[in-house]
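User: ok so my PI wants both of these folded by tonight, can you help

Assistant: No problem, let's get them done. Here's the first:
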Amino acid sequence: MAKSPRIASVSWGRMEVEGLDAGKDFKLYPGGGRPWDWRETGTGHSPGIQPADVQELLDNGATVVVLSRGMERRLGIDPATLAFLRERDVEVHEAETTEAVRLYNELAETRQVGGLFHSTC
């Protein structure tokens, strides 16, 4: 069973993730991750995280998802995204970024966790 990469550190505008180059925003899932480019799905602060943003996490085996709302909780989550996850019986957590990182790292010890992380606002 592939483990999700651990987040080594997070600060405003910068994250360090094991096995990946440092960056600003990330999609992480069992076995790896990559930078999260909001332009791929048309994501913006409002309405926020789209179903298409979380699909890749599920495609890579995540059964639990952590959604970071940003350091100042300015990133929304589209209600359609929460419905999408509920319909698939995926456990979902949403939190301010530093709390989301803590929770994700904790879950990664024992669960197939995926996460979307925004390291600014």
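One down. Here's the second:
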Amino acid sequence: MGLLDTLLGRSKPVQPNLDQLFGLPSAALTLEVNGTFRPTGYGAVCYRKAEGVAFNQVESDVEELLEGIDGPKVQVSKDKYGYTWVLCQRAQDDMTSLVNDVHAVNSALQDNGFGPYLLCTLVSFQDDRGRKLALIYLYKQGTFYPFAPLAEPQRDNTLELQIKSQLGNDLRLEKDLTRWFPVWGAPGL
């Protein structure tokens, strides 16, 4: 960044730090202690599919890696907007393995030059009343935010803000609420 960039108000984009995903087990524990939200065992990575053999090979390698010995159940799907989702499923009490799985998907795409195609990663939770919650990692921002869907297009903003206040010490949270995008119909949510 040079002086001209500073004068014109341009900022350097935040570099994603996928290791922040490893804060999710601690956040899950905080949610369980502070309330009734528990992990569902589902995590998903969303990306825009690139054309070409190289990308297809990376996708195949990721699925093969995850479905190896003792791997999670993996499903690949497309949403109504054309984005691809890799859904991983583990036991509800195995958050560490689930985080390792979604980290592996993100890392494989990033390490093979497809990082710009990554959009977000989510891990889902549910409480005793059936309320759903996702902690979403925005790849391009390097931050998390809570998403509490009700019936589309409504969401529980009050709950999202409560969760934000609970997880401030566990995760790097997105401060700009306009970036808290809904992920309607996300697999695993």
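Residues 95-114 form the longest helix (20 residues). The mean pLDDT is 87. Good luck tonight!
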